[in-house]
Amino acid sequence: MAGLRLGPDDSELSQQSRAAPADLISDDDRSVAADSWSIKSDYGSTLDDDQRHADAAEALSAANLRAPSDYSSDKEEPDAEGVTSMLGLQSYWDAAYADELANFREHGHTGEVWFGADVMEVVTSWTKNLCIDISQGRMPNHVDNIKSDPVEQGDKYLSDWSVLDIGTGNGLLLQELSKQGFSDLTGTDYSEGAVDLARSLAARVGLPNIHFLVDDVLDTKLGRQFQLVVDKGTLDAIGLHPDGSIKRVMYWDSVSRLVAPGGVLVITSCNSTKDELVQEVESFNQRSVTQEHDETSKDKFQYLSHVRTYPTFMFGGSVGSRVATVAFLRN
Ligand SMILES: C[S@@+](CC[C@H](N)C(=O)[O-])C[C@H]1O[C@@H](n2cnc3c(N)ncnc32)[C@H](O)[C@@H]1O
């Protein structure tokens, strides 16, 4: 959850952070783990919002407390000491999407809408307006807000924006972006079940032109760049892997190659605040300068804007919102 933290001395934290080996995960465990990590749709969730706030903060604090170990593959079982959350493991997602595919086939269910339908609506309409503004030469900056009203006739610009959704899950975000007027749409996920589900759901609503591919964003095989890259909940999941800190570094390296120069990255997170995402990008920029041994090279990413319309609330004396959506320009 954006903006909230539990203290590092919370004794229950280390208990909570111990997950079962992935092949021992039951359906109930999976549902509890998902609830304990984030705010998601009403579908399958029985906890009230306050409980989910607290649980998400616990999962995040657990992630932050653990020092990075040597990098290990996603396919490995978590070690007894270092488990952060099942949601960082591919085995978790493979099992989750096997269930969701079965639910789709038997009952026609679409599966989770992570962070809820309201957030998805805000993200897609805000992103559309951002892209139209950029196409028309109105670059937002740290101070300006993005206009919330659609720009007249702006839709014609959207066909210039190739879109990649990384960790697309059921692909509903791309369906929404399609409704907003984007037409060159690709979704990737490292879980084959997610890609099967996303394809089936898109075909069901008559959107077979959305391309879905199996691809691990940390080891991407995509041979092209995109004007707009969106991520809703994927960096969060990656950060919850036992080697989350290392994987987050890999994430920025990879994503910087996927966003075309002049393109935009829009990240929606429930585990990092807007300021934390901006800070993470600044660290990545600094690392890149050091690696390239070129003090004069431009920052790879530059903060553009963020959604300011999410409801905020007070918790432990801090003001926070449940999710943060931040846009970065690829220089
Ligand atoms: C919280 S879900 C969000 C799904 C979707 N973006 C949405 O908003 O509904 C995280 C997604 O990221 C995917 N994922 C996690 N790590 C990934 C990686 N390294 N490469 C590709 N997909 C990944 C998972 O399979 C899962 O579908």
From TrEMBL:
<keyword id="KW-0808">Transferase</keyword>
<keyword id="KW-0489">Methyltransferase</keyword>
<keyword id="KW-0963">Cytoplasm</keyword>
<feature type="domain" description="Methyltransferase">
    <location>
        <begin position="160"/>
        <end position="288"/>
    </location>
</feature>
<dbReference type="InterPro" id="IPR026635">
    <property type="entry name" value="Efm4/METTL10"/>
</dbReference>
<dbReference type="InterPro" id="IPR029063">
    <property type="entry name" value="SAM-dependent_MTases_sf"/>
</dbReference>
<keyword id="KW-0949">S-adenosyl-L-methionine</keyword>
<dbReference type="InterPro" id="IPR025714">
    <property type="entry name" value="Methyltranfer_dom"/>
</dbReference>
<protein>
    <recommendedName>
        <fullName>Protein-lysine N-methyltransferase LOC103328691</fullName>
        <ecNumber>2.1.1.-</ecNumber>
    </recommendedName>
</protein>
<feature type="region of interest" description="Disordered">
    <location>
        <begin position="1"/>
        <end position="27"/>
    </location>
</feature>
<dbReference type="Pfam" id="PF13847">
    <property type="entry name" value="Methyltransf_31"/>
</dbReference>
<comment type="similarity">
    <text>Belongs to the class I-like SAM-binding methyltransferase superfamily. EFM4 family.</text>
</comment>
<comment type="function">
    <text>S-adenosyl-L-methionine-dependent protein-lysine N-methyltransferase that methylates elongation factor 1-alpha.</text>
</comment>
